[in-house]
Amino acid sequence: xxxxxxxxxxxxxxxxxxxxxxxxxxxxxxxxxxxxxxxxxxxxxxxxxxxxxxxxxxxxxxxxxxxxxxxxxxxxxxxxxxxxxxxxxxxxxxxxxxxxxxxxxxxxxxxxxxxxxxxxxxxxxxxxxxxxxxxxxxxxxxxxxxxxxxxxxxxxxxxxxxxxxxxxxxxxxxxxxxxxxxxxxxxxxxxxxxxxxxxxxxxxxxxxxxxxxxxxxxxxxxxxxxxxxxxxxxxxxxxxxxxxxxxxxxxxxxxxxxxxxxxxxxxxxxxxxxxxxxxxxxxxxxxxxxxxxxxxxxxxxxxxxxxxxxxxxxxxxxxxxxxxxxxxxxxxxxxxxxxxxxxxxxxxxxxxxxxxxxxxxxxxxxxxxxxxxxxxxxxxxxxxxxxxxxxxxxxxxxxxxxxxxxxxxxxxxxxxxxxxxxxxxxxxxxxxxx
Length: 434
Fold this sequence. Notes:
Layout: H1 3-30, E1 45-47, E2 54-62, E3 65-70, E4 76-80, E5 85-89, E6 92-93, E7 114-119, H2 123-126, E8 128-136, E9 154-163, E10 169-182, E11 188-192, E12 198-202, E13 232-236, E14 258-261, E15 265-271, E16 278-283, E17 289-294, E18 310-311, E19 324-325, E20 339-341, E21 347-352, E22 365-369, E23 374-380, E24 386-392, E25 400-405, E26 411-415, E27 420-427
Antiparallel strand pairs: 1-2, 2-27, 3-4, 4-5, 5-6, 7-8, 8-9, 9-10, 11-12, 12-13, 13-14, 15-16, 16-17, 17-20, 18-19, 21-22, 22-23, 23-24, 25-26, 26-27
């Protein structure tokens, strides 16, 4: 086990009891809520208590909003899983979608399609907007087994386009097309690094046309295959090519775009604003959601190591129809998470708060919880260990998907529902958060 693995494991052991207690309390609270996902109020609400109050302002009218990012003038781009790209101006959603988006594979009830959107750091100069999506795969030379043939297939793609600032994209082009051809759930997130490079995550496909996977564990072995993009964090230039200083450049066994491997479903990426580290949060199988610090060339273990249990598809009493197989929690040469959740929260996006609007929140990590319908605030001590886990937004009973800090110092989150919303979290006038 590496030194980093040992440190990571000690951190996870430090927080696991706290996390379990927190999740148990949070789950118990869910039964007392009176608001359902389709009854999110139109009016702003003040939540919290005492001097920890904050206001939640809903901006409604979306279908499964999956991601947000901000233009230099303060406008907000919103990706909808169904393939729509929308814009919020002065807190109001433009009723017309932005024109010029490519065809997006929208299947599984709108759960697949357009995953992420990111504004180029030099947007004021080049007007470039980037997005990841599932592109329909109509090739005939890829074999399919009977279990897969009923589902449409797609390929995870990074695209870019020029945005006129009003309602139209031009010069739309796919600049990176992965080899992760899937006909089941997969994820692709992206974030710009300070040097202008792009980190892109690609999840493990549940059903891969080329490998013929068909059960709930999917084709997990691809996360360890150096010749596959699936289950990897990639590092790309802003034109979609592989940087010459990527860790596996020159090794013919590896795809040159690979930055790190061994991931399951990496749904959130951030660059730590102080250390410059890449942080990643992902879904485990039955338990074992993870927060990882991603370093070049490292292996994060899936499916060899996990704090969760793999789906086997075998019926077992009391387990909801799946029988668990327990992987090892650690192995030589494989990294340990900074922390993990058991039971799961099904994390979405995340943001490490650095703004001035909530002074007491500075340095806290905010993680969306879909299974637990909450925004989880994680407080770290001076050693970088998580010491408090505070559930927020539980009263709303909403699956929280993306989480971003805006240039105005406010938090913005998306709700993962067909009648979804972007929630703006702002301080109550005259009060701060603690």
